[in-house]
Amino acid sequence: MPSNSSSSTPKAPLALTIAAYAGLLFLHVPILIIFLYTLTPDETTYTFPLPGITFKWFGIALQRADLWRSVTLSLQVAAIATFAALILGSLAAAAVYRSNFFGRESISFLLVLPIALPGIVTGIALRTAIGGFDIPFSFWTIVIGHATFCVVVVYNNVLARFRRMQGSQIEASMDLGANSFQTFWYVVFPNIATALLAGGMLAFALSFDEVIVTTFTAGQQTTLPIWIFSQLSRPRDRPVTNVAAMIVMLITFLPIFLSQRLTASSSDTEGNSK
User: pLDDT tens digits for the chain (274 residues)?
Assistant: First the structure.
């Protein structure tokens, strides 16, 4: 019988509750300030209280062709980098989980390493490698750069799910006469589906707002984060830049929220089954 966790959990001390709300404010007040200044009629300075309220910057942003070109480019890069990460990250996780080969732990560590390295190091390394092979900087070099850290996100999610999965399920499927594809489709895939979805959505969100690696791997292309960064030197465009920042936040909020919910619900399910 399911237990009522809310009634059995002791009430948090007042100091911890205040600390939690303080942390929440520390993280989100800057975002609220950005949203506030999308409504200001003052186009050059940040004054508070606002001299008035206007929505004209949203209309101006909607008419900026360069803004929407950068949004489209960011969406395309994030989609393809996420697709590549889902394939490579899943295959790498399956190899590390299912196979026992020389250097397996070292390979697992090296697969995770790119996301731990500072972005500027990854960017310099990629730029050097791309230049060394005389590959022209283009849309695809941005995708390659983003895939380096997107693969890690998918790999971590899928490997964690594989480790929670009971190997006897695969053995039972094979004993019952299922071939490799049938075992994958009816046993393995349902078990790792939410991990794939969560990892893919998180990878998409990370790719969409990535700046540092993009700076080193892009040619003349301008993704949305790069566009926003370039607009900061133009004081008269600051309200439009704030609107673009809100667009980034809204686009990345949904996949991160769904990823967090899927990961949490999966943990609850497995915890209840024990």
Answer: 444 545 566 777 888 889 999 999 998 888 888 888 888 777 766 777 777 788 888 888 888 888 889 989 999 999 999 999 999 999 999 888 877 777 788 888 888 887 778 888 888 998 899 888 888 888 999 999 999 889 999 998 898 888 888 778 888 888 888 888 888 888 888 888 888 888 888 898 889 888 888 988 887 888 888 888 888 777 667 788 888 888 878 877 877 777 777 666 555 444 343 3
Reported for 165-172, long-range contacts at CB under 8 A and 24+ positions apart, including other chains, are 165/191, 165/192
Q: Provide the token pair at 178.
A: 């299922």
Largest CA distance in the chain: 74
Distances (CA, A) of 103 to 96, 99, 100, 159, 208: 10, 11, 9, 17, 33
* Torsion sign, CA atoms 121, 122, 125, 131: negative
Structure tokens at 174: 């094979």
Closest CA to 242 of 227, 228, 222: 228
